[in-house]
Amino acid sequence: MASVVITYAVLLILPAGLALAAISDLTRMTIPNAIPAVVLLSFFALAPFVGLGWPDIGMSLVAGLAVFAVCFSLFAANVMGGGDAKLLTAAACWFGFNQSLLMFLVATAFLGGVLTIAILVIRAHSNTVLAMGVALPKSLTTANKIPYGIGIAVAGFMTYEHAPIVALAMRAAG
Fold it and tell me: Where are the strands (E) in the chain, listed by range?
């Protein structure tokens, strides 16, 4: 059985990392490398202690590698930012290679699309919005890229409880 510290670390690290990434992407249009690194390393450090079996940990690595391969291709095609690719890869390990990963990725794609449309609408009307005195970050009004970390984070929050490591930690927490 996992200790209370390990249980709560599992329950807090992914959401905290996702939130920090979203805020950073919104305000600076970048996701610092430290965020996906902490999310990824924390998964592999905590998973054995929360009761996730070695086969499941291995499949989580497979999930991360599969997501990385797709994201790297999108990055190379200049469709996705490097920070987004690293964040998705790290988060994929938390979800594992199972239905929860599919739920997370579908939610990410859907929310990313909604986010993109919303930002394009804001940008099309940015003069009006700014003239109304609404202070918006440049990532929403004039940047050439989309802060996709926001969509990744919201999708992660929505599907978080389905990640196997999180489900184990929630059971341990009672």
Answer: none
Q: State whether residue 92 is helix, strand or coil.
A: helix
Gap between the Cα atoms of 152 and 149, Å rounded: 5
Quick: pLDDT tens for 85-111.
999 999 999 999 999 999 999 999 999
CB 141 within 8 A of CB 121: no
Amino acid at 99: Q
Range of lowest pLDDT (7-11, 14-18, 105-109, 124-128): 124-128
Q: Tell me the C-alpha distance between 19 and 63, whole Å.
A: 22
- According to the model, what pLDDT value does residue 94 have? 98
Give the domain range for residue 11. Answer: 4-173
Region 48-70: mean pLDDT is 97
* Separation in Å, CA 98 to CA 16, 80, 92, 148, 164: 23, 24, 10, 23, 9
**Alpha carbon of 56 to those of 28, 63, 66, 88, 171: distances in Å?**
35, 10, 15, 18, 17
Record the pTM: 0.92
Work out how many domains the chain is built from and give that number.
1
Per the CB < 8 A criterion, the answer to whether 32 and 39 are in contact is no
Cβ(55)–Cβ(72) below 8 Å:
no
